[in-house]
Every structure is written in C-alpha cells, then in structure tokens.
Amino acid sequence: MKQKAYDVIVIGAGAAGLIAAGRAAEFGLKVLVLEKMERAGRKLLITGKGRCNISNDSSMDEYFKNIFPNGRFLRTAFHSFFSPDIVALLETHGLKTQTERGNRIFPETNKAADVLKAIMKWIDNLSIHIRFNTAVVDLMIESGHIAGVEVNSGSGTEKILSKSVIVATGGKSYPATGSSGDGYKFAKLLGHTVVPPRPALAPLVTSGKEASALQGLSLKNVNAVLWVNGKKVKEEFGEMMFTHFGLTGPIILTLSRRSIDEIIKKNKVEICIDLKPALDEAKLDKRLLRDLDENGKRFLENTFKLWMPQKLIPVFLEILKLDGKTECHQMTSKQRKQLVYLLKNFRFNVIDYRGFKEAIITAGGVSTQEIDSKTMESKLISNLYFAGEVIDLDANTGGFNLQIAFSTGWLAGASAARAVSEIA
Questions:
Q1: Domain closes at, from 327, 354, 381
Q2: Within this chain, do residues 33 and 123 fall inside the same structural domain, yes or no?
Q3: Is 222 left (phi over 0), alpha (psi -120 to 50) or beta?
C-alpha cells in the first residue's frame, strides 16, 4: 500500500469542500481534495433549478431566523465569510451577480455552471490537487489526532497521510450527486453523535384525490398554514404547486421541515390554503354576492372563473356538491358561505413526504454540540473538521443553505491551515 502526505485533506468537492480547500491553500499549504464522483460540484450545478441561488443579501439576524436548529452556532463562521465575501470571490474570478426578490443572490448569467466555473478558477490558481473517482473508506486516527485517510480508487486501497482532515461530504439529499451520507458514517465511527438525518425542503404527500386532479397547477400570492393536531403552528405567503402526489413549491417546502418532523412524531398534519389572503371572509362574501347578482343567468362553472383558475373549478364544484350548470341566481346563501369558507380554507391532510431523492437539503447530521463553532473542529478528534451539510444545520430556501456551506467551509479551511502551521 502506497503512502503519500498532505498538509490538509478535504473529503468532498462540493460547495463547502471547494471553499475549504481554497481557503486552506491560500496559506501556502499542500492541499488534496478527494471526490468519489467523476467531477466537482455536482449538487451545486442543480441548485436553484440550475440557476444557483448563491446566497442571500440579508442581515445576520435574518439568517439566524431561517436556520435550524441553532443558527447562532454560525456566528463566527458568518463573521469570517459572509454573503458579500462569496460575491466578491466570484466576481474576482469573472462572475457577476444580481440580487432578486427576497434578497436572493444569483449569477447574472442565470447558470449554476458559471458559479462552479468561477470557484474552480480560484481552485486551479491555487494549485490544489483534486482526485476524482476516489472514495474515502476510513479515517486514520493516532492518539486522538487525525493522521490521514484510507481511500479506494481504481488502483486499489491506499493510505494518505495528513495533518488535518476536513469532512465536507454533504448530506443525503439528491444521492445521485454523491451525497449518500458517508460523513455520518465516519463521524459515528469516531464517537460523534449524529442527529438522525431526514429530508428537509421536500414535497409533501397528501391524502385524497384533489391534489392529483390539480397536478401541474401553480398558485401565486396564496397563504399556506400548517396545522398540527388542530393547532396553527406556522404560515407562509407566496407560491406553491400541486403534484400527482400532493403539494410542493416554495412556501410548501418552507413548511415541510416542521411538517416532516411532526409526521415522524405521528402527529396529525394539515396544510390549509387561503386562495384569497387579501380579503377576509366578510369582504370575500360581499364580492361573491355582487358577482352572482351581476351574472344571474350565467352558469356557475362560468362565473367561478372570476374567482379561481380553470383547473380548480371542477374540484371545487365536486367538493361543494354543486352542479356547474346551475344558474348563479339559484345559488343559495348557504352554498355561497361554503364557497367562501373553501376559498379561505382549502385543506389537505398531509400523510407523508418525499424522500432524499427529491429533498433539497438534509436536516440532521453531526451534532453542533460536538463541533467548536469558532473553528469547525471536532471536540473529540484533534485536527478533524466538519463543513457544510454534514453538520446538523439546515435552512429555508433563499440561498441560506449554500451560504452555510461557504461560511463553514471557509472557517474550517482557515482553522485547519492554522493548526497545521502550529504543528510545523
């Protein structure tokens, strides 16, 4: 078995791993990145539907509100490298950015590939060695200190020595990109607590046939409320979409984290959609009454077009047990009140959630209680560091998750480099 030596080894060539490697190399150290896939940044390439929501131009306090379970763990990481810093790094290497609704930062080209290209340009300039198709199978420990890694590549098993190792293997979401939970396995073997990984920002599965009948319909400017055991616990305003199995879209994904945790606890979970959030029930009833009076001889199925998308009409008529060929003047006060209630309370029972193949991010991971927030170093093994999604941190949509990866990667890279310099 061959043995080589590096100052810093980074496991994983995703967003966190590449930033960690680049930062460590800026200290003039010999850095190796090990990636089991055939190329770098595979998950980065599909983020933001291929556009890559790089970061979010909000305050640190706003970040903390959007990160779970403990956003303040990232205070030092964010102070080390925050949204203006990743923007500056990318622009230095040829990529201009733009800020859109919700303070979301995207590349001007709207291409995730260009984000990866800019990062790789920085990496290449630092002469970092990256080995693809090389899977780490074990971490080498000597007297409580990291000593290197054992890898499996096409040429067989090999031990590679290193003074510092950074685990940036990602979570379990989108496993086709290489995120298969390797980092959790390494951490457990070393005695770390791993909070059970589960999908976050994942579509929700509902009972009944309504969602399936509405498959493909997108709704904008609606309010979605999450109910757990009959209690209102969270709400989001914005855009959503129906699928053959249930609900998805930005506001549903944001509600999904809490929804999934409650489903795992076997609690009753419901999502209630308010299709007319700008109107209370009294004002909505007044509007419906006016429209019904003005269209007295028209069929209900035609007048319903004034209140909802075409695809919703047959679903609403069936729920309300109304004949679409009924003339508007024949609609009773009771039926109108039922329609008002349904427009404000279109309710779905959530019975399950989609798996890691469809989840944007993974909740759970290596416990933050066993990681030094000021360095990203393991509290159990010296000179072992964690960065990115492998840590028990996840966030709402909007660029927050990628910024976590960039910030923890930067801090881990800097910390590992400083530790190596002290050893030397």
A1: 354
A2: yes
A3: beta
Convert the pLDDT of each residue in 311-327 to its tens digit.
999 999 999 999 999 99
pTM, 2 dp: 0.92
User: Is the same domain home to 241 and 181?
Assistant: no
d(CA 43, CA 65): 25
- Domain of 234, in residue numbers: 203-354
Using an 8 Å Cβ cutoff, are 269 and 230 in contact? no
Phi and psi at residue 89, to the nearest 5°: -60, -45
Q: What is the pLDDT of residues 206-254, one digit of tens each?
A: 999 999 999 999 999 999 999 999 999 999 999 999 999 999 999 999 9
Same domain? 154 vs 8: yes
- Chain-centre distance for alpha carbon 414: 25
pLDDT value for 1: 44
Handedness of CA 295, 296, 298, 302 (dihedral sign): positive
- Co-location of 164 and 302 in the same domain: no
From 317, 334, 354, give the residue that closes a domain: 354
Please give the DSSP secondary-structure letter assigned to residue 277: T
Tell me the DSSP string of 105-174: EEETT--HHHHHHHHHHHHHHTT-EEE-S-EEEEEEEETTEEEEEEEEETTEEEEEEEEEEEE----SSS
How high is the pLDDT of residue 3?
65
| CATH number of the domain within which 191 lies | 3.50.50.60
- Chain mean pLDDT for the chain: 95
Backbone angles phi, psi at 88, to 5 degrees: -65, -40
Q: Examine the domain organization and report whether 55 and 182 are in the same domain.
A: yes
- Of 202, 264, 255, whose CA–CA distance to 226 is shortest? 255
Residue 204 has pLDDT above 70, yes or no: yes
Number of domains in the chain: 2
Residues 224 and 194 occupy one common structural domain: no
Q: Are strands 346-353 and 269-274 parallel, antiparallel or unpaired?
A: antiparallel
**332/216 same-domain check:** yes
Same structural domain, 210 and 261: yes
SS3 405: helix
d(CA 201, CA 257): 6
